[in-house]
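Key result, reporting period 2: structure in, sequence out.
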């Protein structure tokens, strides 16, 4: 099935982008959204933490470098943001048959709060499932990058690092390793080298979306 054929078929597609800081999730997800819209797809592009007003307010708290947030509170804030995003943006768009593209989802919480912070993995997985009602992406694109290179990319960004970006390289290395472990365990993952030229990554991602549509149609 081609992308053009998919336009005539009902049902939404949920695509998530994951990766360490500076891997290019925002740029690559925006490029995918633009490509899909140009051929007629209804596309919703959202992010985590963030999305609806409540989730965006939580985002400002979570990324504020002036705040010290206890690990348990951090987890609950991320999940509150996600629950709002899923209820108000993600599920309605999927029910309407659109493509939802989300920067980060449950996998980020497992990578950052379980591996990065050291919280119990089974508890984090269960909490994520509760917050989302068991919603899973159809396709997860992992933009894999050495954390040191990712942080170097952020040096030129105005405003300075946020609260998460300020963590040391050991923290971000644990996050990357957990992402790669998740990719080995879940078939919905596709791992791409985030150091490749952006236009090359965009072409690969568009092909992966076509593949995901074909798989969804056959199930």
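The corresponding designed sequence is given below.
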């Amino acid at each position: 099935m081609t992308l053009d054929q998919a336009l005539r078929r009902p049902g939404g597609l949920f695509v998530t982008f994951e990766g360490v800081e500076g891997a290019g999730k925002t740029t690559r997800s925006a490029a995918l959204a633009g490509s899909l819209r140009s051929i007629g797809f209804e596309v919703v592009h959202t992010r985590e933490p963030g999305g609806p007003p409540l989730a965006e307010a939580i985002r400002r708290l979570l990324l504020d470098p002036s705040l010290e947030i206890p690990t348990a509170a951090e987890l609950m804030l991320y999940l509150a943001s996600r629950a709002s995003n899923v209820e108000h943006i993600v599920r309605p768009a999927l029910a309407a048959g659109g493509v939802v593209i989300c920067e980060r989802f449950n996998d980020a919480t497992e990578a950052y709060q379980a591996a990065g912070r050291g919280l119990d993995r089974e508890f984090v997985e269960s909490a994520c499932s509760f917050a989302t009602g068991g919603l899973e992406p159809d396709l997860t694109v992992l933009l894999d990058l050495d954390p040191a290179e990712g942080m170097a990319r952020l040096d030129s960004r105005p405003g300075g690092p946020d609260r998460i970006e300020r963590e040391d390289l050991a923290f971000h290395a644990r996050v990357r390793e957990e992402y790669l472990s998740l990719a080995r365990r879940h078939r919905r993952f596709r791992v791409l080298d985030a150091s490749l030229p952006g236009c090359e990554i965009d072409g690969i991602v568009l092909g992966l979306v076509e593949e995901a549509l074909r798989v969804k149609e056959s199930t």
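The longest strand covers residues 13-18. The domain at 3-218 is CATH 3.40.50.300 (Rossmann fold). This case is discussed further under Risks and Mitigation.
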